[in-house]
Amino acid sequence: MSSAVEAKLAELGLTLPEVVPPLAAYQPAVQSGVYVYTAGQLPMVDGKLPQVGKVGGEVTPEDAKALARTCALNALAAVKSVAGDLDRIKRVVKVVGFVASATDFTGQPAVLNGASELLGEVLGDKGVHARSAVGVAVLPLDAPVEVELQVELED
Fold first, then answer.
1. CB 126 within 8 A of CB 78
2. Which terminus of the chain is more solvent-facing, meaning fewer CB atoms within 10 Å of its CB: N or C?
3. What pLDDT is recorded for position 26?
């Protein structure tokens, strides 16, 4: 039986992907007490990055926003891998997003709205969070965006 959160994803035409395997020596997510912290999630789809490069350069801000949405979906999969059920999410506490940015690109918050909006659509009020949107020179595998979550679980 699928969870209410996964039913909402299906209603939005989305499916929870498999957890993206780590690229180095870390876990996709860890639980400490009632919190789950995800590793930075790249916008991997079926083991590949759909686009690479800098936002405001090779990647448009609109495409990067869609990629941030994919990152958030991958982060939810990582949360489920340790929480067991996404219905245990009490709230998303914090989202941190990194945008590989062309030197003159300053639209990082709009890019990260892709992740924030997905969390709101899927989790409603439980998806409202604090957030940091950070521009960086380069990300692993030349990914345009990376997103990590801190989530509080119900006991």
1. no
2. N
3. 94
